[in-house]
Amino acid sequence: MKYLFILPLLLLISCTQLPKNKPPVKLYKTHDLVTNFIKGWEKIKSSPETEWKDYWWDYFLANKILFLDITNCNNDKYRDLAIKLFKSTLNQRYKKLPQIVSDAKKNYPLLESHLSDALTILNKKIPIRKPIDVYYVMYIHPFEGKEFFYGDIPAFAMDLSFPYAKNTDYKLIFIHECFHVLHFREVGKSLENDPVGLIMREGLAVYATKIILPGSPDSRYTFLTTEEIRKCKLKQKEIIEAMLKYTNNYDMMNKLFFSSGQNLKWPPRCGYYIALKVMENLSKKYSLKELYKLPPKQYKKEVIGSLQKLLNQNIPKVF
Prior knowledge:
By secondary structure, the chain is α/β, with parallel strands linked by helices. It contains 15 helices and four strands. It has helices spanning 6-16, 35-44, 49-62, 64-70, 79-93, 97-125, 170-187, 195-212, 218-222, 226-234, 236-245, 250-258, 270-282, 288-292, 296-312; strands spanning 28-32, 132-137, 145-150, 153-159.
């Protein structure tokens, strides 16, 4: 009996030591610029086609800063050129608005589902500590999905006007692009317009998707065809030499990732293949999480060193 008074105290202590279940972090936050666009379209779809064009252009102007940020063109160098491109594309697309809007209605729940699945998978490898800002847009110049800086905040945009194919690899695209967002959060904006940072960010995103979604050929992760991979292997030495030459020239480095290469003699997006090989080489020294956290001074040294090492290696066998 004399020990009964201790029981309430023991219960209190044990209760205070029970682990508290934290609510799961929401993986993304939606910014919907599509629903109101569709509502407005329903009101004017019976109007003359010229009004369709004006409607889409007014939508662009109302969200101009966001839309220019998505394409990294909200600057004196590219702003005017981008606006001209938007106007030119609008002239080609506005008459297709009935079909574009119809497809957007169907694709919205599908894309939302794929995004949720992809981020759940990504979160297991790279913890998403705060929701990723996701912008749903009806972009005049179509794209699938893209990471970008909205001001100084890394974000992800998804274009509902894009003509998604049935065989679109949504999971890979969303993991690749949202990995960029997390990488930007970790390292900062220096990755965006730095030539060596371009190799680092694209190579690491490709390498990460290969680790997270294993078992496929490199063509899947680099968005290249099997034949283009073969040509990249044949021209590997030349492409690496160009990368080393352009370590201080962003525009030229960018062409190796987002155009057909110098003078069309290399496969389009050939930079992705070499950047993947750079990361695979660095993975012998660093884990994925360690690569993801490398600061600018260190990743520049490591990427250039890896390129030089690859340059001196024997060219891989071409299948």
